[in-house]
Design a protein that fits this description.
7 strands, globular, about 220 residues, alpha+beta, about 25% helix, disordered N terminus, about 15% strand, Glutaredoxin, 6 helices
């Protein structure tokens, strides 16, 4: 009697309720080291855009030379973080990865005394999962996760004319732009972009923690 071979279908479950092509499972597990300059970035992963080309930190690899705005709309010069190691994260309040807020706050609390800070940049680009006003975002982060690390104005992280200069610089240095909420960039003491980590790499990941410890030395 012949045996029938039953085809096996893999079911891709999208993170945060997104569509399969948006799932974080397609992200590499390993961090992506930063290129020495923009010319080293992979153009396939980071298409050139006018906004990205205009970001001065793309060639200097110095995120701390840029300025942005805080969540409440006040100007903020990132030079204030020079001498510190930071973890830049595009955050959202209604994502399956939102519980990472707890781990991010834990990292910030444990290491802030050694010159480390988490920098949160809300974004509504992925699944519309950060729809709130600045006041709503602040209230959610404070009451739900007791967040004390800095939160900045809601911004666009994807390549394009509206992309945040901060994210243009981060993408220019690594060749990787966020493809979902809670992607992470490790930035060194002089504003140099060290590595990119996809959403599924949590704040308690051993390799990420080791990289932070190395940067703090």
């Amino acid at each position: 009697m012949r045996h029938c071979l039953l085809p096996l279908f893999a079911v891709a479950v999208a993170a945060c309720g997104g569509t399969p092509h948006q799932t974080a499972s397609t992200d590499p597990v390993k961090p992506v080291p930063a290129a020495a300059d923009a010319a080293s970035a992979n153009p396939t992963n980071n298409p050139a855009t006018p906004a990205a080309a205009a970001a001065p930190a793309m060639t200097k690899n110095d995120v701390y030379s840029l300025s942005t705005a805080t969540l409440d709309g006040k100007p903020k010069n990132l030079a204030d973080y020079r001498g510190k190691v930071t973890l830049v994260v595009n955050v959202a309040s209604e994502c399956g990865y939102t519980p990472q807020y707890a781990g991010l706050q834990k990292l910030h609390t444990e290491l802030s005394g050694r010159g480390f800070a988490v920098l949160g940049f809300p974004s509504n680009e992925f699944g519309g999962q950060e729809p709130g006003s600045p006041e709503q975002i602040q209230a959610f982060c404070t009451t739900k996760y007791s967040v004390t690390f800095p939160l900045f104005a809601k911004c666009a992280t994807k390549p394009g004319t509206g992309q945040s200069p901060v994210y243009a610089a981060l993408a220019g240095a690594t060749g990787k732009s966020p493809n979902w909420n809670f992607c992470k960039y490790l930035v060194g003491k002089q504003g140099e972009v060290i590595a990119f980590y996809p959403s599924k790499v949590g704040p308690d990941d051993a390799e990420l923690r080791a990289a932070i410890e190395k940067a703090l030395k």
